[in-house]
Each structure stands twice: as structure tokens, then as C-alpha cells.
Write a structure and sequence with these properties.
The chain is an alpha+beta fold. It contains 7 helices and 14 strands. The chain is globular, with a radius of gyration of 21 Å. The protein binds zinc ion (ZN).
Length: about 260
């Protein structure tokens, strides 16, 4: 069905329209509704997702997309930090599905164009039957404690002076615990023990799953990896540095240290 015809069936649905690293919002700062936003879609939509699970519409708009009605574009991180877990899970899902669909057009086995699977969150190859599922990249994030002190790090790319928890991607074949021990060792030279799962968060920058842990310092002195880390130190509760924004799992880990 042509896009223009499909748009008429979206009335009342929540829309996540992305333009580069921004999302279209209404004047109130929430994701737009189809009736206000659809007018910009037909000329500018490059990838469209109609998601049966959330009932939401997602699309990637071309960079020259214009603004409908009282809408504006907002940076995805600002949106994320201003909303709750439920809304952020929807945003992460639609953003992830859109970028996956945009980047996955042809079958890696036989080169044929892929099509959406009728039931699964998947693309299928009509020629060889191969199924491709959305790619999620798991990251561990951990708050390391040494008694009443916590380890926080400033990333080498940070320009705001923010100190965060240690984080890194899980490598092929690793358990989450192995990834955590490796990342702590590589970035700070420390060994940790007593690893405890805390929670997780979909993190749409771009398609990650942050899996959060606490761990206890076991041995070693801080020796940073300068290519990744500008500074790493032990901090006490009464002398914390600038922290990641509320809403991030890193912030929750730090604040949870003295609540648990
Ligand atoms: Zn194929």
C-alpha cells in the first residue's frame, strides 16, 4: 500500500519521527501524534516502521524534513532524560527498529532485498528464507565500591567534566561477569569481586542494552587506559563530582549506593 494511504490509518497513534539524532515532538515535549505529524511524512520518510507491539509509528526522515504544526525537533538524549522508563522503552524500540531496518536491506547470504516478516520482529529473505533479527549490543555498566568510596571515571571524550560509572561492550563469547572484570581491568587496572546484578536499560545511542551491576574492589591501584579514560578516582558521598543526568542508569547506580 502506498505510504499516503497508510498514513490515514495512523490517526491517534504516537509517532517517533527521527531526523539525524533528533526526534519530532509537540510543543509540550512529548512524541507527536500522527494527525499533527503525518503531513511531513510522505515527502521525507526514508524508513517507516508500523509497530504492532506498541501501536506506535516510527520513521527516519530525510535531513531536509520540515516541521509540521506546533512541532519541533529535540535531541534524542534530551528527550530520553526527560521521560520515564516506559516511554523511553518505546522510544528505544522504535529508534532501534528504524535504524536496523534502514541499515538492513539485503540478504547477507544471497543479496536479495529483504522484506518484513509477517509475525516476528524480523526481516526475511524471500529467496533463501534466511531470517534476520534486530541487532542489540549489550554493554555492562558497573559501580565499583571500596568500602564507602565509589569509583567514577571521566571519559576521554567528555567535555563537561562529568564522572560516570565504568562501562563497556560485551565481546563475543563472554559472560556479562567476564566482560565486567575485563573492562574494569583494561580501563583501570583493578580487580573486582562480589558482582551483583542491579538492573538494565535500553539505551538508544544507538542500539544498546545497558546491563548494570555493582562490584567490590578486590585488589590493585588505579592505572587508567588513557585512550579511553581521562581520569578515574575514588569518591566519597560528601564529595561527589558532576554526575550523569538523572534518568540514566549510571546516575541510578550512584544514587542507589547509599539507598540499598
Ligand atoms: Zn537470501
Amino acid at each position: 500500500m502506498a505510504l499516503l494511504d497508510r498514513v490515514s490509518s495512523w490517526e491517534g497513534k504516537q509517532t517517533y519521527f527521527f531526523r539525524d539524532r533528533e526526534v519530532l515532538v509537540t510543543g509540550g515535549g512529548d512524541a507527536a501524534r500522527a494527525e499533527g505529524a503525518a503531513s511531513c511524512l510522505c515527502d521525507y520518510a526514508r524508513t517507516v516502521i508500523e509497530d504492532p507491539r506498541t501501536g506506535c509509528i516510527g520513521a527516519i526522515l530525510s535531513p531536509d524534513a520540515s516541521l509540521p504544526g506546533d512541532c519541533r525537533f529535540e535531541p534524542v538524549p534530551s528527550y530520553f532524560y526527560a521521560h520515564d522508563d516506559l516511554e523511553n522503552a518505546r522510544l528505544a524500540r522504535l529508534k532501534g527498529l528504524c535504524s536496523w531496518r534502514a541499515a538492513t536491506r539485503f540478504c547477507p547470504s544471497c543479496g536479495q532485498p529483504l522484506r518484513l516478516h509477517a509475525v516476528e520482529d524480523a526481516l526475511e529473505c524471500p529467496a533463501c528464507g534466511r531470517l534476520l533479527f534486530p541487532r542489540i549490543e549489550p554493554c555492562i555498566i558497573t559501580l565499583v565500591s571500596r568500602g564507602e568510596e565509589i569509583l567514577l571515571l571521566r571519559n576521554a571524550k567528555d567535555r563537561l567534566g562529568v564522572y560516570a560509572c565504568l562501562a563497556g561492550f560485551v565481546e563475543m563469547g563472554e559472560t556479562l561477569e567476564q566482560a565486567l572484570r575485563r573492562e574494569v581491568r583494561e580501563e583501570t587496572g583493578l580487580e573486582v569481586d562480589d558482582i551483583r546484578y542491579v538492573g538494565s536499560q535500553g539505551w538508544p545511542f544507538p542500539d544498546q542494552l545497558m546491563v548494570a551491576f555493582e562490584a567490590e574492589w578486590k585488589s590493585g591501584e588505579i592505572r587508567i587506559q588513557p585512550s579511553e579514560i581521562a581520569d578515574a578516582r575514588w569518591f566519597r558521598r560528601d564529595a561527589l563530582p558532576p554526575l550523569p543526568r538523572p534518568g540514566s542508569i549510571a546516575r541510578r547506580l550512584v544514587e542507589g549506593k547509599w539507598k540499598r
